[in-house]
Design brief:
Elements (H helix, E strand, L loop, with lengths): L2 E7 L6 H9 L6 E8 L5 H11 L3 E6 L4 H11 L4 E4 L5 E2 L3 H12 L3 E10 L2 E5 L6 E4 H4 L21 E4 H7 L13 H10 L2 E13 L11 H20 L3 H19 L20 E5 L3 H11 L5 E6 L3 H5 L19 E4 L4 H13 L7 E2 L11
Parallel strand pairs: 1-2, 1-4, 2-3, 6-10, 11-12, 11-13, 13-14
Antiparallel strand pairs: 4-9, 5-10, 6-7, 6-9, 8-10
Helix pairs in contact: 6-7, 7-8, 8-9
């Protein structure tokens, strides 16, 4: 069976060769690689054209800038593979990855294969696993936990396009129909409708995709456009869930999903008082942020803009990796050197991790009432 790997590219010259070389170096050879230049203004177009000349498996498309969904659509329209996969231009895959994914397709005959992935931050490589156990599932089995696993802020099925192989016919019904104006959550706009089109899905324990968080991957300022993109996504999913007759099952999950995305991307929408999800804190507080991942970066940027709020320290146990990216992140032990502060805010959405951080901080002698995570009021819908 042949596979088409589609790589949307926009101004990725720093990372592009590692990405494309990792695809060309796959042990699985029956594939075409479609590189879509989405209006890049750096040297990416020239790099792509060079690959097109050097390897017959590579096809290059140049188009005006339209975003990830638009670039994926351009690649899909010319794709000839029976299965379609995607790799982001600043990520990379291990040599066996496509072969193992295709073996899963052959052995199970499913419409979608799902893998785990690695999250690379500097020298740290963290495995991110599915909430589902490995195995073949029908869509009816996945649907009750599609968006929300039942654990606070945890997806049922991860929305990432890049960790999945899709039967081509599925994407022709879902990817090509997605609203290209959706520039946030464009993966979810395709992945979740695709599950509804599939007869069965294989959840694998394979891990060979590396999502790389670069320094320029730090979350940016909230904009009105982001709020509009969120609403486009929510409307798109609701329309499909209603059309498929599954809204009764999906509506409670959508509430959780909305809360997660709005908090992660438009934090201020929650704040009738500062950081409402944490129970609310006085604007004159002196705080420490524990965690420098996506949420920690978002909180640091957001809280830095609040007048009178003092961020005394920003810490993470992987502080060296973040320091190497130019971020002013210290080690947790630095907390002990502070003479005074009001609260430590744990910037992590995983309850088990937050509990571990709380335990470690109290073992350091820090008072429990100074350590804040999401309030019970905010998580009240969790049950």
């Amino acid at each position: 069976m042949t596979i088409s790997e589609i790589v949307p590219v926009y101004n990725a010259e720093k990372y592009l060769r590692k990405c494309v070389d990792s695809i060309l170096g796959q042990t699985y050879k029956e594939m075409e690689i479609i590189l879509v230049d989405d209006g890049s203004t750096d040297k990416s177009p020239q790099i792509l054209d060079q690959y097109g000349v050097e390897d017959a498996r590579v096809r290059v498309i140049h188009k005006t800038n339209g975003g990830a969904a638009s670039a994926r659509n351009a690649g899909l329209r010319v794709a000839r593979g029976e299965y379609i996969g995607f790799v982001d231009s600043d990520d990379w895959i291990e040599p066996f990855y496509i072969e193992k994914m295709m073996q899963a397709c052959t052995n199970t005959g499913v419409d979608i294969v799902v893998s785990n992935h690695f999250h690379d931050i500097g020298e740290e490589c963290k495995k991110v696993s599915s909430a589902f156990k490995p195995g073949v599932y029908t869509k009816e089995q996945i649907l009750p936990r599609l968006l929300y696993s039942g654990n606070f802020f945890e997806y049922g099925l991860q929305p990432h396009m890049v960790t999945k192989l899709f039967r081509r016919e599925i994407l022709l019904k879902t990817q090509l129909c997605v609203d290209e104006r959706i520039l946030i959550g464009e993966d979810a706009a395709v992945v979740y409708p695709s599950v509804l089109e599939a007869e069965n899905i294989y959840i694998s324990d394979l891990c060979g995709y590396h999502y790389v968080q670069h320094s320029n991957s730090m979350t940016k300022s909230e904009t009105q456009s982001e709020k509009q993109w969120n609403q486009l996504l929510f409307s798109h999913l609701e329309k499909i869930f209603r059309a498929k007759g599954v809204w009764d099952v999906m509506a409670p999950q959508m509430e959780q999903y909305k809360k997660y995305l709005i908090f992660m991307r438009n934090m201020s929408e929650f704040d009738t008082k500062v950081l409402l999800p944490y129970g609310g804190i006085p604007t004159s507080s002196k705080i420490i942020i524990y965690g420098a991942g996506v949420l920690g970066q978002k909180m640091y940027r957001y809280l830095s803009e609040i007048e009178d709020l003092d961020i005394a320290l920003w810490v993470d146990r992987n502080y060296e990796a973040y320091q190497n990216k130019g971020m002013k992140v210290g080690k947790p032990e630095d907390i002990l050197s502070l003479q005074s502060y009001d609260y430590i805010l744990i910037a992590n959405t995983v309850q088990q991790t937050a509990d571990t951080i709380k335990h470690n901080l109290t073992e350091m002698g820090i008072e429990k009432n100074k350590i804040l995570w999401f309030s019970e009021e905010f998580m009240g819908q969790n049950g």
